[in-house]
């Protein structure tokens, strides 16, 4: 943390998904989705008590997205797509820090990845260095 309320955060991430047909339309199927990348964010927190806080993260993520599109225009063929770019990254969360320094976090992440938007709820553990 830069001070009691603000800090910087960096991370590496990856993920994968299943079948999505709404992404390209009714007559195509998108599957074998995978993404990976790095992100950096500014971290801000509002203390609710000595050990409880609400926080937000705003930043950017650079990532690579891969997926397969099947049935393009009724052809029955599969096309593999690979894209990369930089997008917005945003988080809203709540955290509690125990006397040992270990923290528990609940957060909502909004991560647009080129053509795909990932909205994620997560539970995490943290420890300050």
Q: How do the strands and helices of this protein lay out in sequence?
A:
Elements: E1 6-17, E2 29-47, E3 52-70, E4 78-97, E5 103-113, E6 116-126
Antiparallel strand pairs: 1-2, 2-3, 3-4, 4-5, 5-6
Explain the overall architecture.
There is one protein chain. The chain is an all-beta fold. The protein contains no helices and 6 strands. A 6-stranded antiparallel beta sheet has the order 1-2-3-4-5-6, with no helix packed on it. Strand 3 and strand 4 (about 80-95) form a beta hairpin. The relative contact order is 0.19.
- Strand arrangement across the biggest beta sheet: 1-2-3-4-5-6
- Integer-rounded radius of gyration: 18 Å
Q: Can you count the beta strands?
A: 6
**Helix segment tally:** 0
Task: Choose one word for the global shape.
Answer: elongated
Distance between the termini: 9 Å
Helix content range: under 10%
Approximate strand percentage: over 45%
Low-confidence stretches: none
Major beta sheet summary? 6 strands, antiparallel
Class based on secondary structure composition and strand pairing: mainly beta
Q: Quaternary arrangement of the chains shown?
A: single chain
Element order: H for helix, E for strand: EEEEEE
Provide the residue-averaged pLDDT.
83
List keywords for this structure.
about 130 residues, about 70% strand, mainly beta, elongated, single chain
Task: Give the gist of this structure.
The protein has 129 residues and is mainly beta. Helix content is 0%, strand content 71%. The protein has strands at 6-17, 29-47, 52-70, 78-97, 103-113, 116-126.
